[in-house]
Each structure stands twice: as C-alpha cells, then as structure tokens.
Amino acid sequence: MKTNVKALVVGGGAVGTSIAYHLARAGWDDVMLLERDELTSGSTWHAAGLLPYFNMSFATTHIHDYSIRFYKTLEEETGLNAGFAVVGNLRMAQTKERMDEYMLYASTAETCGVPYTFMTPDEIKAKWPLIRTEDLEGALYHQTDGYINPADVTMAMAKGARQRGVMIERKWQADAFHWNGEAWEVTATKMVEKGGNLVPSDEQIVITAEHVVTASGNHAQRTAKMLGIKMPAIPVEHQFIVMDQDPELVEFRKQPGNVEHPVIRDADAQSYVREERGGWILGVYEPNAPARFEYGVPDSFRADLFQLDLDRIEDQYMAMNHRIPSAENCGLKDDFNGPICYTPDGNPLVGPAPGLRNMWLAEGFSFGITAAGGTGYYLAQLMVEGEAEIDMASLDPKRYGDWMTTEFAARKNEEAYEHVYILHHPDEERPACRPLRTSPAYDRQAAKGAQFGWVNGWERPNYYAPEGFNDHDARSFRRGGWWQYAVEEAKAIREGVGLIDATAFTKHLVKGPGATQFLDWFTCNKLPSVGRINLTYALTGAGTTRTEYTIVRLAQDEYYLVSAGAWTAYDSDYLRKAIADKAPEFGYIECHDVTTQWGVFAIAGPKTRDVLNTLVKDADPSTVLSNKRFPWLTMRNIELGMCPVRAIRVAYTGELGWELHHPIEMQNYLWDQLMKAGEPHGLKLVGARAQNWLRQEKSYRAFGTELGRDATPLEADLPRFVDLSKDFHGKAEMEAKGVRVKCVTLLIDGPDDADPWGREVLYHGDTRVGRLTSGGYSVAFGKSIGMGYVKPEHAVVGTKLKVKMFDQLWDAEVTEDSPYDPKNATIRIDG
Ligand SMILES: Cc1cc2nc3c(=O)[nH]c(=O)nc-3n(C[C@H](O)[C@H](O)[C@H](O)COP(=O)(O)OP(=O)(O)OC[C@H]3O[C@@H](n4cnc5c(N)ncnc54)[C@H](O)[C@@H]3O)c2cc1C
What pLDDT does residue 53 have? Predict the structure, then answer.
C-alpha cells in the first residue's frame, strides 16, 4: 500500500468517492481513498436515491444540477449502470402560498438554467389519475430529474476513479492527523471483524499526504475531535417505508403509454412518494426526529439501521393515503430508519477547515446522493485551481464560529430536518436555540418591540413592531405583515433620525511593524492615513472578492478592520492564514478578533447631529461633529456622556450618520443616553430590513450577495475602491478575468403586493441575461428596487430589462450607480 500521496480522501460514501474521482479527473495522479469498512457502508447504502433539484441557494442549485448531468454520463464512462430513472419530479402545492414558494424557487432555478414547468391539478390528473388533485393548487414539475441507486452510482464513481488511477483502500480507518509543516501524516489502522463488530487491529501505517479531504459522514464528530476543530455535522434519524404492490398501480402501468410516476412530493404533507416494483416508497420529514451520534458512532453500528418509529410518521402515512388513495390497501414490505447527517442550516460543510492547512472538509450532507457529484466537481476545482467557478461561501465550514457547541448543533439539526418541507419564506426566522448570542441592549430592544433576526448566532433586530405583533404570522413570499414597519423605519432615516444595532459586525485589530505592508498587499484599495477610513477588498488568489473591509487606521501601524457580521470565523481564518504566510516577509504582525469587545450603534438621518450634539462632551460641543472637525470618512475618539466612543463617519444607509463603536460593557448606558437625547428629535429604532433597502438606493454592495468569490471587485463595478497603481494579492488574476459580468442597480415596476428578494432571474427581451442578488422596496422612489449581475452589454444606464416574479416578467430599468443622492450631498452635509 502506498504511503505517500498527493491527496488522501477519508470516507468511501457517495461524497468521498465523487471527490476522489474528480480530483483524478482534474489532473491529480496520486489520489488515495481510505474507507474504514466497505464503500457505501455509511448513510449511502440506505438512501432513497432521490435527486431533488429544489434548493433556494444559487450555489447548491449549481451543485445539484452538475450531479444530475454527471450521473447521466457515468455508464458510458464506466460501463456500470447507476440505475438513473429519469421519471421527473412533481412538487405539489396545497395552498396558494406554496405556489408562491415554487414560483420564487423557479425564478432562482432559471438563473442556473434548470428546466421546469408548472402544472395545473387537471393536467396532473390527466397524466397520473391515481393522484388525488381536487385539493391542490398546482405543481412544479422538473422533467429532467428522478432517482438513482445510491450504491450503484457510488460504485460507478469508484470504478471511474480507479480507471483514473485512484487507489481505494477498504478496511483502513484514519485515526490521527498530524501536520508536519509541509504535509499531513495520517495514521491509519487496519480494521477487522470481531463478533459482527468492526474493530481496530494492531496493524497501523502512516500515510503522508499533501492534502487531506474528510468525507466521514456520520463519523463527523470523531473526525472533528481528531482535527481539534468544531463541525456542526450531526445526524438525525430519517425514515422511509416500502409498501407492497398496489394493484391499481400495477394495472395503471400495464396500459399502453403509461409510464412510471414522477417522484411525488407533497411538501405540505412533509413527504415524498415514488414507485418501487409495483408498490410505493414513502419518505417523510416528520417532527421530533432525534439527533444521533452526538459523541460518535459506536463500533457496533455499521451498515445498520434504527428501529422504525411508525407512531412518529403516522400523520404523513395518512396523508399519503389521502393523496394516493390506492396506497391505503398496500401492506408494509420494508422499512428504513437511518442516520442522515445534518447541519444547522441544512447545507453541507464544504471547503478549507478552520485553522488548518491543506485540510478540506466535505461533511454534513443531508442530500448527499444529490450533492455528491457537484461537490466532487467544485471541491476539486477549489483544491486544484485555488477557486471554484461558483462561490462556495454558503457551504464554507467556517460559517459557524467557536461559539458553536454540540448541544446547539444537535438541536438545530433536528430543526433543520423538520424544516425540510416547511414553507421557505425568504423572511423566515427559525426558533430553535434562541436567543443565544445577545448584545447587552437585547432586552431593551425587545421591550421596544424588536423582532429579531439570526446572524451567526447573534440576535439582531430585523424591524420593530407594536405589542402583540406576531412575526411568524407576518411572513410571506410577497410583502409580509412587517413591510409597513420597515417602510416607516426607512423613511425615518431619510427624513429624521434612526438608530440601528450593528453590534454583530466582525471586527479585527491588525497591528505591528509588518501590519502596513501586509494590509497594503492583502487589500486592493489605498490604505487610509491615520484617523481616516477606506472601503477595500481582500481578494482570492483567483482575483475575486474574498472579504469586504472598512479599514480604520488607528495609528501608523495599527488598523481596525470591520467586516460583515455573518462571516467572523470565515474572515478571521483567511486573515490569520495570510498573516502567518506573510509575516516572515513583512515583519511581526498581531491579529486580534475583537468582535465581542465592541458594540456598534449606527445612527443616521438628517437630524443625527441634533441628537449627538446634546450628548457629546467637548470644549465646543456644537462643532465636534461639523465637517471641519469631523469630515466624512474619518474616525475620531469622542465621548458621549460617560461613554468613550470610537465614532466612524460612515453610514451604510447613505444618509448623514456615524457608527458609534463602544465598549460592549457600556452599551446599555449609551443606549439609554441615545434614547433620551433622541426623544425630542423623534429618533426611531430601525432594523436590518429597512437598512437593506436603504443601502440598495445607494447601490452599496453587500457581502454574500453582490460581493463574493464568483466576481471580481471590477465586475462588482467598484473600480473606485481598487488602486491599480499598486501591487496586491490577486491583482493579476483579477485583471486577467476582465469584466465577464457587471453589477447593476435596478428600479422595478413589480406587482403591487410584492418586492423581489434578490434571487430572481433577469431577462432582456426573451433572453436570460442575469440574476438579482438583492431586492426590496425603495422609499425614495416608491417602487421595488434590486441589485444584480448582468452581462456587461446590458449594464448600460437606461437599459430596459425584465424581472421574473410569480411566473411573470416585470419591467426593470438599469439606473445610475446610487440612484438616491448620487453626489453624496446628504452624507457630506455640514452642520
Ligand atoms: C433513510 C435515508 C434516506 C435518504 N434518502 C436520500 C435521498 O433520497 N437523496 C439524497 O440525496 N440523500 C438521501 N439521504 C442522505 C444520504 O444518504 C447522505 O447524505 C449521503 O449518503 C452522505 O454521503 P457521505 O459520503 O457524506 O456519507 P456516508 O455515506 O455516511 O459515508 C461516509 C463514509 O466514511 C467512512 N468513514 C468515516 N470515518 C472514517 C475514517 N476515520 N476513516 C475511514 N473511513 C471513514 C464511513 O465508514 C462511511 O462509509 C438519505 C438518508 C437516509 C438516512
């Protein structure tokens, strides 16, 4: 057995096997896969094999789309039939709201080129008369989709991998990982059978690998422990049952022209049904399915199952009999209750492991058969070429920070499982494990009616509503019950003054003799002079946007970096790894994550000075905040009452304003002072939703929507923040990419009762030309607004485009950048 390889993949389920295959296909010749038992012996063997396209995320839709196309090619390559039945996939809606969901999803699917059609109940009945349709509103149909045999597709990928030189070693368990500074030394133990259990023998070897990928399925917690990292990948029980033959189905299939039923998804009944040898398979996503293996998988659990819990799925079973009445007389033939790995948001963890070099994770797959092909393809791109063609951030393992615990992951994963078939409102907030991370002013905000959103564990007000208001009932695919409150809040900032809690911002302190040279190399804009601020970007090695920073220069070699709140661990990891690489060249650099030490209130609106002037302590309070003493894009240490404040004159809402960074332990004091001083001026509390709309009126790009690893800052149309006269990381690659797409702002004449959410497809005439990445309502223009990417020829101001919402095309026009106050007059206003 070889002991020195380029890449070692740990785990021979669908995911690990696909990764090994794609690494070889991408050109790496020395790839080895270790499997502690037999290939497919994890969750893969008992999967139902459905390949659902349906996913609200752009990246995941691409992954699923690749898998479905790739699996169709495997037989030709390997001679093995993976049993792909392209029967289509029928997603039924019992309510108008569910149809709204499908129409939003369909617009997203179109941005990735995924085909679909809508069907009426009559069309369904005419084609598949066994389905009861009188209580349906309609359905979404994917004709190119279906199901596959999970073990067969894995074996086909394994054969393809072997043909490309991959070494697959079974009955070897990876037991320890040591980074020697250049490569991983992986201790592997030969596994042997003992009394039906699989146990380690005394035989061990050490395999040296430049790169390691873990795809250890239900063993993720053991893997995390060995690596000394945290991974919120914990399985939950998942059941499906196989029914005996249904005589009516058998008869239906005998008739000429009748083909197999599509996979039938009755989302409102939390279940899926497909044909199986003349009978039916019923799979469910029921409430109260427990998490398992929080602390590891016992030796005795191999290709095993849990006991069926029929009581738990009784409602869904009855619902199946309602939907397909002929199923009621079928007996139970077989049952499966297996572990299905989950993560708190239902997305897998794919990408570089936190804090480690050349260690890649592919863990936490709940739709691992569907995702395996695409994950292998895009992860191999990431490893071999440095970046994937899609932005993998939404799957990055570092979207959860060190605050994450086993208890959190287990309870959140149970929730994610139960939520598979709920209505995926874009304004959804999930309740489990909350509140967990709260800023000190949380109780004060709650008392004022704050309706909180979840950001990286933090509670952050989305908007404020009157007493008795229920956020859950206010959610919608159209304008929800909260919309009117967000409108009032947005208007308050444009016309008066508003206060936003931005404590969740990620904050790093970078200082030391090497700090200036390092940041000059690490980011693409000029560094600010002392006391000033710049907006800038750290790029990937491929020249695309890795992180957006507001950089404040506190002293000659001391910088305060502010970035998006959702991405603390993701940003920290990239920054720290880059510092470690570059410190030998540039000199000593310290990096501190100070996120939880600083609270942030953003105060903005034309009356901001009126509020702050009454609080600020200074020999001449009336001039402290004037343009002369405190110009736009500068930082000053000021005192508001007894609170020392690092005040930064920027406003993400595009109005006169300051970010008030303050010691977290003084937050409540500062809050009370601001409330008191603000009262005579009508200070309004404002949430993240209004802020999101306001920043679109200013064309301010947001990280995770307009800004990500699939576009360069030049494609984001931000040349004013890119200093081409200096050298910086990713510059040559950014320039080589040119401008393939361009970010634009659009004013939209949409439906009267809805705004876009930022996932919709854009058309020019009959041609698909791009997609929205943000959407909302503009109080300044009294209509919908959005931002997105189009081909450069369609980015010209005045270009008339169409946005697809609710299966209709609506007029949209490309505006100039910053349609509201393009000259920044209100932000710079003196006083
Ligand atoms: C009842 C049920 C139905 C499902 N239906 C579907 C479906 O219809 N469609 C779908 O897409 N998904 C479905 N799934 C989910 C799907 O089964 C999983 O997402 C998928 O199998 C995960 O594949 P994997 O390769 O990540 O993990 P696994 O298949 O669990 O593979 C991990 C492998 O790693 C090995 N391993 C672990 N640790 C080590 C180590 N230290 N050294 C060496 N080897 C190690 C294990 O032995 C195992 O073989 C279903 C799941 C269940 C439970």
Answer: 81
